[in-house]
Amino acid sequence: MGGKIAWQIIGVGGATLAALAARKVLGIVWEKTTHKPVPLNTQDDEVGLSEAIAWTIVSGVGVAVARLVVERYAATTVRNTWGENALPKKLQSAARVSADDDRR
């Protein structure tokens, strides 16, 4: 039970915080490099299409990478501390799950 709660806190909460932090950092870097504010509304006519596309790519990839790194770290931590079954089914290794089933 503790592992499932740990996953919720570390995996889900950590990934959410990582996404928020990544977006904030990317916004600061964007403003320093482009000398323009972050295009918050990419559908605004005052935001050029190339600028809207660039921000969408930068922020999307940046947030996805931050979430991926935190989720992988969290999954490894939960797996090593509480075992494979503490993770959600979609994150459990197929080989490990079948090995666990064979032992039962």
Q: What fraction strand? A: under 5%
The SSE string, one letter per element, is: HHH
- The whole-angstrom Rg is 19 Å
Helix content: over 70%
Shape: elongated
Regions with little confidence, pLDDT below 50 for 5+ residues: none
Termini distance? 19 Å
Structural class: mainly alpha
What attributes characterize this protein structure?
104 residues; mainly alpha; 3 helices; 74% helix; elongated
SSE layout and pairings?
Elements: H1 2-34, H2 49-82, H3 94-103
Helix pairs in contact: 1-2
Can you walk me through this structure?
The chain has 104 residues and is mostly helical. The protein is built from 3 helices and no strands. It has helices spanning 2-34, 49-82, 94-103. The two termini are 19 Å apart.
In short:
This protein has 104 residues and is mainly α.
